[in-house]
What does this fold into?
Amino acid sequence: MAKKLFWLFVLVGVCFGAAGAALSAVLLTQQAYAPWLSLLLGLLLFAALLLLAKRLSAWLLSPLVDMAKDLDELEKNAPYPELLPFIETLRRQQVQKDENLRQRQEFSANVSHELKTPLTSISGYAEMIETGIAKDEDVKEFAGKIHAEAGRLIDLIRDIIKLSELDEAEPGEEMQPLSILPIAQDTAGMLAFNAEKAGVDISVSGCYAQVLGRRELLEELIYNLCDNAIRYNRPGGFVRVSVTEDASSVILSVADNGIGIPPEHQERIFERFYRADKSRSKSSGGTGLGLAIVKHIVIQHGAELKLESAEGKGTTISVLFPRIS
Ligand SMILES: Nc1ncnc2c1ncn2[C@@H]1O[C@H](COP(=O)(O)OP(=O)(O)OP(=O)(O)O)[C@@H](O)[C@H]1O
Ligand SMILES: [Mg+2]
It folds into this structure.
């Protein structure tokens, strides 16, 4: 590329030089016709330069146009070595776009499936009541099931809206210094009834270290982690929420001694709709989106996630927030 540009400039320079020399020669020798001749020569020169510029730019751009025809083979079709970094960026963006598209398609397919299940069940119970197949004494039970399934749909839609809001938000938006401990205490308070029902003891301890955050997102994050720690536990189990700090981070940990997560599922539980314990998740009204929301919130806060879990022994999920400098 650089060489071609060099020769292009040389060529344009030579043209200008030659034209200038010719023009001055004419002006000196044919003084009577000088104005007309110089105008004519000027116009001719201008037209020639336009043509030359058009040809040269087409010649310079043609390898780029060829390259754009086959974006899959960008590296192979690289016309100039100087373009390799640009090609690498293009390729990376293309891979990212393909991945985003794949995730969106998978997400839509999953959403449709998850919406269909409760709706089918609502429709089935409603039809039994409508046609009189349901006996009078069953009506109350069926209405309860319709109510529960409608609740699942509302939860699902709420989580989907939350995820799309998080998808759109810029990391670090509207953050302010906040102490995590009181938020954890409030959130644990909201779940105290669920914990008691499940026979699980929930406690919160730690320091008042501050992080840069958004309160409602931190509440959501702690709620989801504690909700899981209660839901995937056993009667007599515990959930311990702690806030600690070290030289570089403020660490929020939610530890339980519940059912644990088998190693083969550990990599995937933060994916949308992924459930390790499908039956327990579904029977307790889980949407499979809780940890995907957690992951997004962690990214928003520039924090880091750590998971430790042993099947049958329990799970600890820690979020390492950067310290406020
Ligand atoms: N503390 C935990 N102990 C054991 N398994 C867990 C724990 N937390 C999460 N899991 C597993 O990870 C899966 C994904 O959790 P996630 O919170 O995303 O979805 P969910 O709990 O099924 O539904 P919801 O969207 O209502 O939270 C769960 O289905 C469960 O199998
Ligand atoms: Mg959950």
Remarks:
- Residues 224, 227-228, 286, 290 surround magnesium ion (ligand 2) (CB under 6 Å).
- Residues 84-131 form the longest helix (48 residues).
- The chain has a mean pLDDT of 88.
- The CA atoms of residues 156 and 190 lie 20 Å apart.
